[in-house]
Structure formats: structure tokens, C-alpha cells
Amino acid sequence: MLIGGRLHFMKTANVDFEQDVIARSERVPVLVDFWAPWCGPCKMLGPIVEKLSREAGGAWELVKLNTDEQSDLAEQFGIRGIPNLKLFHRGQVIAEMAGALPEPQLRAWIAQHLPTPKRDAMARARELLRTGRAAEAHAILAPIAAADRSDEELVALAARARVFSAPSEALALVGEEPGSGPWEEQKELVRALARVFVTAEQGGASLPSSPLKARYLAALADLRAERFPKAFEGLIAVLEEKPGFDSGHAKTACLAAFRHLGMRHPVTEAYLSAFSRATNV
């Protein structure tokens, strides 16, 4: 169907999820409406989401999945109640919502979560950071962060990408003093890493000479090089001997590195218990 000169796609029956959703979402965002004929709220939401799909004119596409007919897919995606909307992009769920919303709120929800070039760039950068490729993440984020310093999420992400190669620059991006706001935790992560990296750049001049200092600086060198397993082994060994080493910065930096990777990252999960034992967390 052509809407405003652009092809409008809506699949309502016999959904081939791999082709109609996963593969298609590589080209355009796909909104999946999980519904059933007996569901009262579905009857309210359905016409609204179909109208918005037509108005979108191909900016995103709609697939309506009858959970009675394709219960296996509903189970696969953990659908516990309907209606349920899931927005797919590049094969992944990027947003989801349960229940029915009035048209203005639904329109706003879709607009909020639709991918944009900036959001795409940020998503790619997050994945690169998770895999220890901060330099590549920085190359993606630096141009858009320079053009938009008002986006605190973007600034915090750009600082995370920069902290491994230029900690002082990353610290300047987020500011040295704690603030408030939804992205403050990300900024504090950057501050924690930047502090210890600057200490290492100065050769640990603020630390008393000891074998522990040398091991600590070696672990920080591994951390800065994104050799995370080796870095965690070194930091945890230091913390086992002295949990408050470097005025507590060793502990906060190790925890920040876990959060940088993600608390469910396999490397984080492999070392978190040992960290907790060493620091009594």
C-alpha cells in the first residue's frame, strides 16, 4: 500500500517472525503489536497503532501478531499480558510497552524510541565499549558530541569512550564535581576511572613507595589498555591486601570498570564475587 508516495507495510496474519520482523528491522524499525481477538484493551489500541503506522509513511512498519495463533512467539518473548508493543531495530528489541495508551501518549512513545542517526551512533558506541573498543566508540561519538553538548547522555557516553585514551579530557567533559540528573551515575563512572588513570600518568607520585604500588600501577596500565581480565586480577589482588588502597580509589575504579562493561557482562560476572570478598561489599 502506498501512503504519501511511500510504501506502507503492515503484516497482520501468518507472521514469519524471522523475515517479517528480524530481517525487515535491519532496513526499517518494526513495531510488533502482540494482541488477541478476545482482548478488550487490544481492540482500543489496535486501531490507534494502525492509524499511526499509516501516518508514518514507511518511517516504521507494523506487524500485528495474534498470540492465540502464534503462542510460541508470545512465550519466546515473555509476553505475560496483552496488548504488548515491542519495537525492533537491527534484530533487537529497543523499546517495549505493555497496556493500552491514548493516541497522544502512544504517538509520543513511538517518537521517543524511534532510531535516529544520533541514537544509532550511540547504540553502536555502547556495544563497542562493551567489547573493549573505546577508540572506535570515540571516533563515532566525538563529532556528534562536539555539535551537541546539551545532550547529557551523549556527553557522558563520549566521556566514557575517551577516558581510556585521554582521562583529563574525559574529566573535563563531565566536570570534576558531582552533580545531579539521570546521567550522573555515568559521569561518576568516568570520574572514578579518570582519577586513577591520572594517578598512573603521574607515576603514582601521590602514593607511598611499596610493592603494592607497583602492582597497582601495573593493573591500571592493563585497565587503561582495556585488558579487563588481567586488570581485574591485579586490582583484586591489591584490594585483598589493602581494601582501602589509594584512599579508596582502587575500589571505586574497579567497580566503575565493572559498570563500564555492564554488570551482566561475562567478564564482570567472572570477577565480581572475588571483588566483593576482597572489599566486603
TrEMBL record:
Coiled coil, from the record: none
GO function terms (MF aspect): protein-disulfide reductase activity
PROSITE patterns per record: THIOREDOXIN_1, THIOREDOXIN_2
Phylogenetic lineage: unclassified sequences, metagenomes, ecological metagenomes
Native organism: mine drainage metagenome
InterPro entries named among the record's database cross-references: Thioredoxin, Thioredoxin-like_sf, Thioredoxin_CS, Thioredoxin_domain, TPR-like_helical_dom_sf
CDD domains, sorted: TRX_family
Keyword set, alphabetical order: Disulfide bond, Electron transport, Redox-active center, Transport
Designated name of the protein: Thioredoxin C-1
